[in-house]
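Session log. Operator J.P. requested a structure for one protein chain; no other inputs attached. Running the standard single-chain path with token output.
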Amino acid sequence: MPITSASTQTIIRFQGVGEAMYLDDLGIDLVRILPPCGGVPVAGTVDSFKVCSGRNFDLSLSGTSSSGGLTYTWQSSPDNITWTNLPGGNTPIVTTNITAPTYFRAIVTCANSSTSDTSVSQYFPIAPFYHCYCENAATVSTGGDIGNFSITRTSPIQIVLNNGNAAPLSNNANATNTYTDYSYLPAPTLNKNSTYNFKTTAITSDVGIFGSPVSVYIDLNRDGIFNSTSERVVTGTVNQISHIYGGSYKIPMTAQYGITGLRVVYDASLGTPDPCFQPYSGEVEDYLVIIGLPACSTAVNPGVASITDTLLCPTEIFSLIDTGYDKSIASYTRTWQSSTNNQTWTDIANSQDLDTFSLAAPNQSTYYRLKVICTSNNTASFSNAVLLKIRLPHFCYCPSYANGGSSGDLSDIGAFSIGTFVVNGGGPHLSNPAAVKPYTANNSIAQLYRDSSFNVSVYHIIKDANQQDAKVTLFIDFNNNLVYDIPSERVWTGYTDATHTFINTSILVPASAVTNTYTGMRLILNNDVGPNAPSDDACGIYYSGETEDYGVIIFEKPSTTGVAEATSVAALSLYPNPSDGQVNCTMMAHSKVDAMHLTVTNIIGTSVYEKSFLQPYVGNELKETIDLSAMPKGVYIVTLDAGSEKIVRKLVVQ
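Structure written below.
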């Protein structure tokens, strides 16, 4: 209440009037003497807090100029655009209420300078119902308080809330609270159809307590009101010795799902605890709880697992998806698992309770499934398993493809050959409807030899009738490091035009090339004939053309004393090939062989099978069964060392 005076001395008298039979005390909170304002005042900031619909609250400012002679005009707005003066809003603090979200601001004017400042508007939303229950608090702060309040699920036993310190029980100097709002604490979940024990431990500032009553209320229907009878979940008397009262209650199936309020009323003055009627002594505490689904009691339906991709390169991102699992119950955990053999499973970190889980592809083919554990009885259930296959390494080089789409991507590779390896799509050079592929992963395997030359040919096809010149580039990963090293592994660059739709050259495989393992070969036809990174560096996206990826196995150069094809071995056969893993290996020789060594390696050069044969077990003929049934499906290299000679065969396990 501002009082303005122009006198050098001002006397203010405060007088209290009460009923004649009582003595009245008068307390003065604050008297400030302020200098007169001058210049432009500072309006300050509108204080912010939770507002309940229809409930009065006080608007105030912080940081306003500490000066006399200030006048105030409070305003409200529904949209922060159109402003209306508040009735009676000409004081530093104004009482009002709202039933819809509203903006407020204050205009502060200095009467001496006739200048004003307007505060920044403050938005006041309507608080949720669970913050707007009836106000309640003990009348006096002396006597008893709530020292600790806890909620424990009875089966299985689980403490879901444990708040407060109840030591010491008596002569506790902290037993001075009348009301405490604990709605900021994490809200525990109370499952429907589950029983919980609600325990209150009282403390007192005195030497002891009487058997005082305590009640716990839960807003089960979430209507913003604590019904004093139907929503009083437990009530009883605190024990004079232990200071504890505990009662159990089963959350009904009729309770409404979601967050709601819980109130504990402890009446140390021996009254009847009521959610809205003030006890004389004691304490009221407010909490939030979540009414959850009923807890599971048997194995939970895990749903159906699916995968966004089934064939990827290592580190590429994919997602696992679980649908159709049981959402009508609770108290279970869901964890994604992985396995390389569909038998031994491992939990995946940070995958708990996710309907969709995205992760990077591993280095080998892997199965995935969802594990569901009902925490009530530790019962497990599992979804179906999905398989992610990992591409062969030669399909996992840097991305390269045309992105012109159906209207812009006009050229393709019609045919390609290197040595005796031929891929031929055929068709005319122009107006070829097959010229629509931006990228092709070709599963065929070319066989080349160290220190040998090979003829290379490429045929260019075009979707429409107009000629499109193209740049053709061939790359081979000779050192098998899964990178096309530039310039050493850019083995050829050629150009097509209207008169040269079929072009050819000759390339040399270096003597240093890695042998007997899969490596990559990439052919790019790009309508951009100038210098460009996608064509020159084997990596990147271009507008029109096609990239084709192939696998290559490089062998030692054939010679009479070399290691390509044995001269004394008449035949080496593997049957069946392709095989399910059981393979018969037969060798026939022109002359007696004293010793042989049989080796099987996978595509990355790791040995998966080895066996040596010495006299008298070898001679002109060898028969051996190779068991690869436990090995992953794929391509393997079978190498037979026969004396001073070596023979190599490809084996497919499927």
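Operator note: Helices lie at 405-408, 533-537.
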